[in-house]
């Protein structure tokens, strides 16, 4: 497995040591690996949300739901 050296704050280092000392993780490497998995998942979720929101914006002409609903209601009243 490749080795990487990173700098973290003393508070972060203490948090990692605390997590290992209290049995949440077997090693500091496990803490960092889980943190990276969570970071990657959050990054992918943000990409997905941006893609979905951009698709919705294109479909709605960039208008918000409230504006579209107001237009719908106005049209409904005109038709009644």
UniProtKB/TrEMBL annotation:
<protein>
    <submittedName>
        <fullName>Antitoxin ParD1/3/4</fullName>
    </submittedName>
</protein>
<keyword id="KW-1277">Toxin-antitoxin system</keyword>
<dbReference type="InterPro" id="IPR010985">
    <property type="entry name" value="Ribbon_hlx_hlx"/>
</dbReference>
<dbReference type="Pfam" id="PF03693">
    <property type="entry name" value="ParD_antitoxin"/>
</dbReference>
<dbReference type="GO" id="GO:0006355">
    <property type="term" value="P:regulation of DNA-templated transcription"/>
</dbReference>
<dbReference type="InterPro" id="IPR038296">
    <property type="entry name" value="ParD_sf"/>
</dbReference>
<dbReference type="InterPro" id="IPR022789">
    <property type="entry name" value="ParD"/>
</dbReference>
């Amino acid at each position: 497995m490749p080795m990487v050296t990173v700098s973290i704050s003393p508070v972060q280092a203490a948090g990692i040591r605390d997590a290992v000392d209290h049995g949440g993780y077997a090693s500091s490497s496990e803490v960092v690996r889980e943190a990276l998995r969570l970071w990657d998942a959050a990054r992918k979720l943000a990409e997905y949300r941006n893609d979905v929101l951009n698709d919705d914006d294109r479909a709605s002409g960039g208008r918000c739901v409230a504006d579209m609903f107001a237009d719908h209601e106005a049209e409904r009243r005109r038709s009644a």
